[in-house]
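Forwarding these from the shared drive since the link keeps breaking.
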Amino acid sequence: MQRRIRLAAIGALFLASAQVLAGPTPSPPGAETYIIWPADGTVITGGKLWVRMGLRNMGVCPKGVNVPNTGHHHLLIDTDLPPMDQEIPSDRNHLHFGAGETDARIELPPGKHTLQLLLGDFNHVPHNPPVYSKKITIIVK
């Protein structure tokens, strides 16, 4: 009996800590962001490319506009996911699309690169639970 109580307490503590590690804005069940183009493994010649961003079960809204079940895209280039309870950084590895863009022209140097999308709320903080895409790899020649 005491073991069950301890396991329940540990489980509750784990769930509480998981909630703390995500932003305050809820995302709906089934929300999903994904990279439409380029596909995983695509080889790009010249370095300039369009990235097309998709979103299911949520809407796209500009930064600063607090509407339920909406957010805006952030493209992560050659980096891992940032902390989920903080504002997404804004630098050459974390591109913000706060005007609500769903495609963007970027330029990358030759080599192997990773791309991943992370949806941010009106304050650039990931939702709870976070909505992010699969990380893909492309090659620029």
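-- next protein --
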Amino acid sequence: MGAILSELKTRVSVKTDTSQIDKTINSIDNDVFAPAISILKNIKSKIENDVPNALSNRVAERIRSYQEQFIWMNGTVDTTQMVNTIFVEPSAQGEVDVGATALSEDGFPYPIVIELGSVKYEGKPFAEPSLNYIQKDIQKIGWEVVRSKLG
């Protein structure tokens, strides 16, 4: 039998599309509007370099917060072990992982069994509902991050 997957993880990945900025830059007369081109290139650079990490971090932190809330609301907390193992960890440019890694002393994978259930235990999801809740927050978080990085 293979190893039991001990963590329940979600990857938040932010990719930017600056093609419209490129089109605008390419359509402007370089000689007359050089200052505008410089401003647009600066904006493009910030969007490509600063926004993905900041946005993925903010979304992952909000997901972590929702997961904690659902764990407490579901009554699946005997100790704070599971809540204390929820992590937010960058994995690549614009990518952050969020999840829980709680194990019992016997190696029982709490997060997966609590989320999905087992033969003996009806699951009490916390990860899936947190992803449903974050959907309503993403646009607001996105605009806040873009404004903070461009402001």
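Residues 8-15+51-150 form one domain. The radius of gyration is 21 Å.

- D.
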